[in-house]
Inverse folding.
């Protein structure tokens, strides 16, 4: 259970060391330290494959209050490489809870640390940027120099090609709820369970494909639409997915992308990507739709972004395109739309569980795009 007295340390690549006690599994883990500002939804965060190779810091001081249930996982396992909290729940309480968060972390061998001053840590990451880090506890604790050395020897997130590490080994089909109206080929770069669920609820039969699938394998499905999922790593490494996307655009098959998928569509349209200082990770991030001026409150989890200006129109290899959405906090690109081929994508999460659901109608827009193309 929680409140272990085993000493633990979170070590950042710039030499900052935060001391605390072991939480979850004991041992050693390495990854990019990033902070997430969601007050709820820690189970969805932990099981989101986009957090692969990241050590997640929760800014909400109390974590674990509702325990761990058998329904909210976004994938078959916890993907974060480490977990940093301030004050873990001693007594989880929720009618759906089947075990404590601490037990779930131990069961899956996820090394964490509690008792960290997460406010100071978050301010540090906000100023200095997300960076390589490690959590060390028990026998794995070494001298500061040793631990910093291990962190400095670990690979950076920039240039990391990770979709192949999280994608499904085999293609599978998620049937439509009720009558099947459309068939969609979904490229799994780290897809979350709630994404096919949002589509199947709208009469879409979803064929989830491994990230290495060829154009022929995709076309074999005779899809009415193609979906590009979220996923971990640097979008600059997605040559295969970007080439595949270009072939889909050439054939004018309706296409919708989320997060990593937005970065891939952007790249296919000729935009560049860059690593943000500390990214957007939370569940109350505003996004403005340039066409309507409307603001949506969104869930986000990204450390990279597309280059471009809010509302900018640009020439792509597939005709005109627009930066359709942006974040008013920092003018980050949050969506792109092609005007001459049926394709659009967003950097945020319309499938967000536990919400917010402002952006859910984007799945209806995908349906409309497919209806129009038929
Ligand atoms: N959730 C995602 O799809 C993240 C995309 C990409 N790995 C990023 O960090 O920007």
């Amino acid at each position: 259970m929680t409140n272990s007295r085993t000493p633990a340390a979170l070590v950042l690549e710039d030499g900052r060391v935060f001391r605390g006690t072991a939480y979850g599994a004991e041992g050693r883990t390495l990854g990019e330290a990033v902070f997430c500002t969601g007050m709820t939804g820690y189970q969805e965060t932990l099981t989101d494959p986009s957090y692969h190779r990241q050590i997640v810091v929760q800014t909400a001081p109390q974590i674990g209050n509702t325990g761990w249930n058998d329904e909210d996982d976004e994938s078959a396992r916890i993907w974060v490489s480490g977990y940093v909290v301030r004050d873990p729940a001693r007594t989880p309480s929720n009618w759906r809870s089947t075990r404590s968060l601490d037990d779930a972390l131990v069961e899956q061998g996820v090394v964490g640390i509690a008792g960290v001053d997460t406010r100071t840590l978050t301010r540090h990451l906000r100023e200095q940027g997300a960076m390589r880090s490690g959590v060390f506890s028990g026998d794995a604790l070494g001298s500061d120099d040793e631990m910093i050395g291990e962190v400095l020897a670990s690979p950076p997130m920039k240039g990391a090609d990770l979709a192949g590490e999280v994608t499904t080994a085999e293609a599978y089909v998620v049937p439509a709820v009720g009558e099947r109206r459309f068939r969609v080929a979904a490229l799994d770069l780290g897809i979350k369970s709630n994404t096919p669920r949002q589509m199947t609820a709208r009469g879409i039969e979803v064929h989830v494909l491994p990230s290495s699938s060829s154009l022929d394998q995709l076309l074999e499905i005779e899809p009415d639409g193609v979906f590009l999922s979220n996923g971990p790593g640097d979008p600059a490494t997605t040559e295969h997915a970007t080439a595949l996307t270009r072939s889909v655009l050439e054939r004018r098959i309706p296409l919708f992308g989320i997060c990593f998928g937005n970065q891939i569509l952007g790249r296919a349209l000729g935009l560049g990507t860059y690593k943000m200082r500390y990214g957007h990770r939370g569940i109350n991030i505003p996004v403005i739709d340039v066409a309507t001026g409307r603001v949506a409150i969104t869930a986000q989890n990204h450390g990279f972004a597309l280059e471009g200006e809010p509302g900018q129109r640009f020439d792509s290899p597939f005709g005109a395109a627009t930066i359709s959405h942006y974040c008013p906090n920092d003018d980050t690109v949050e969506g792109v739309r092609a005007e001459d081929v049926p394709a659009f994508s967003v950097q945020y999460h319309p499938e967000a569980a536990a919400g917010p659901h402002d952006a859910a109608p984007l799945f209806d827009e995908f349906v409309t795009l497919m209806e129009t193309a038929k």
